[in-house]
Amino acid sequence: METILIDESRKEDWNRYIQENPSAIAWQVFDWYQVVNRHHKVQFLPLAAMSGNRIEGVLPLYKLKSLK
């Protein structure tokens, strides 16, 4: 298993994983970063655990500047 950053070309695979996983929550959908980005300028880091070409887990991370 390896961890990779998912780009826009794999967004449908990401979203399919979310839709098929009963433990997933709405804010894990790939485009949720657009909502977050409207209020806080962020860098989206969509990490996925891969087994071959199949997504086995996701971790949507957001990098933002300090609020200081």
Strand content: 35-45%
State the helical fraction. Answer: 25-40%
Structural class computed from helices and strand pairing: alpha+beta
**How is the biggest beta sheet arranged?**
3 strands, antiparallel
Model regions low in confidence, pLDDT < 50 over at least 5 residues: none
- Strand order in space, largest sheet: 1-2-3
Query: How confident is the prediction overall: mean pLDDT?
Result: 92
Order of helices and strands: EHHEE
Silhouette: globular
Counted beta strands: 3
Determine the N-to-C terminus distance.
38 Å
Radius of gyration: 13 Å
Count helical runs.
2
Question: What would the keywords be for this entry?
Answer:
alpha+beta
Summarize this, please?
The protein has 68 residues and is of the alpha+beta class.
Describe the SSE topology.
Layout: E1 2-5, H1 11-20, H2 32-39, E2 42-51, E3 54-64
Antiparallel strand pairs: 1-2, 2-3
Structure commentary:
By secondary structure, the chain is an alpha+beta fold. Helices cover 26% and strands 37% of the residues. It is built from two helices and three strands. It has helices spanning 11-20, 32-39; strands spanning 2-5, 42-51, 54-64. A three-stranded antiparallel β-sheet has the order 1-2-3. Strand 2 and strand 3 (54-64) form a beta hairpin. The longest helix is centred in the N-terminal third of the chain and has 10 residues, at 11-20. It is globular and about 40 Å long. The relative contact order is 0.26. The model has no long low-confidence stretch (mean pLDDT 92).
